[in-house]
Amino acid sequence: MERVDLIPPPAADDAAPRDDVADRADAYAAAPLLNCLVREVAEPLPRTGEPGEPGEADDHRVYRLPGGRLLRVRGERRPAGPEVYTAAGWRPVSHPELVKLVAEVLVRHTGLSNHELPAEMIDSRDAVAALLTARAGATPPADPYLLSEQSLITGHPHHPAPKARGGGPVAGWLPYAPEAHARFPLTLLGLRADAVVEEGDTAALDALGEAPAGYRLLPAHPWQLDLVARDLAPAFADGRLIHLGTTAFEAWPTAAIRTLYAPERDLCLKFSLDVRITNDIRRLWRHDLLKLRRTDTAAVRAFAAIDGPAAWLGDHGYRTAAFAFEELAVLVRDGLRDRVVPGATPLLAAALVEGFDGSPLDGAKDPAAWWDAYLAQVVPPALAAFADHGVVLEAHLQNTLIAVDADGTPVQALFRDSEGVKLLPDMSRAAGWERLVYCLVVNHLGEVAAALAERHPGLDPWPAVRRALSRHDLPETAALLASPTLPGKTNLLLRWTGADGADARYLPLPNPLAG
Known about the structure:
This protein is an alpha+beta fold and 515 residues long. The chain contains 18 helices and 23 strands.
């Protein structure tokens, strides 16, 4: 069945006339912002069935906002066409007006003001416009895996500013944007040996080039070097750092932006990036690096004991400079060749939700069987890691790869990112379970299920999720299937109230598993 999207995906219409870029950027930016607004602070109104009434029975959903104003939108998964109710009836809301409306609602709802987040919302929308323009003249990667990593124009479907790039000029970040199909060589630095700090296996870094006597190789993300150039100037001046050119190969930025993959070398590197992307400044923070070996070792051991093809993409080690520990840190991650089952093609799970040319979710001849196969690969390893090994995977859409066979059937799940993994000795079992349920069920399975149902009308994906979860004899799964609610992360309120990006807060969402 042909895919039907509320917002046309870039892959299908990048050749559209340039004069519609603004409208498309508005629509892309409005959808996740509206998702946040209606999830976190709005009250859904019942349909009245009376034409002309605020709750009229049509293709709109109507919500009451704090303060009493009424908002209606078309669609549910990717809401569009926002309108507010006035004395003269329903009036369309432009993107700048939507940002102003959200700010007014949040001031009323929280009693707090915030001048930073509205600017990020505008920055996110403007970034989308720049990305759409760039994609019209860019050549997408032929490799399906790279294409999936670089497909996310909307990005996080429940974040108020998923594409914000720190407010900097477009020319500063666009050359490194995965959504613009960027690829570029890595900058090579020589780091004086007495300033090297490293832990774990970093041998792959030494194979990137030649360092002069007394120095070690340190690859760097060119955007990060631009961002911290002033801070590093003294180190270049006194010889602690020297420029050694660039790699002979190009690396492709993945959906995470600061994580790059070089397919010729099967090399995956994660860098610090001093830019706020979604909730956090994306540095490799010292406290995370210092616990990396413990966390990654626990994940490696867990997956070694798990039955089936599931794989963990381990973070081997890191190297950095003692005088710029976080700014210049680089993390070495497993490549794909030795981890993906033979003959399968890995794809980013988030790309299945967003949509891209050749997505197996679109081409599934038997969507129910495809979904059963998907769940069989994703659910068991995530639950086994938690129940048997105390490892709480951050199994959300951007940290999960799905490998499919030649027919597009899921045959393997691969999980990544030690930075997001939690261990039960460090948090309560209840807190770990809540985090896993949000990442795996709400953020991940809920989004894929909704996209699958939208593309294949008549399919109810939730009975299959119930069956997949009920196969695991955990007290938590039984309680989950009986609970009326699921935990939904409040990204809009987190950002508005200035909470730490890692300080997840949840509100109850209706649980489709309970029915």
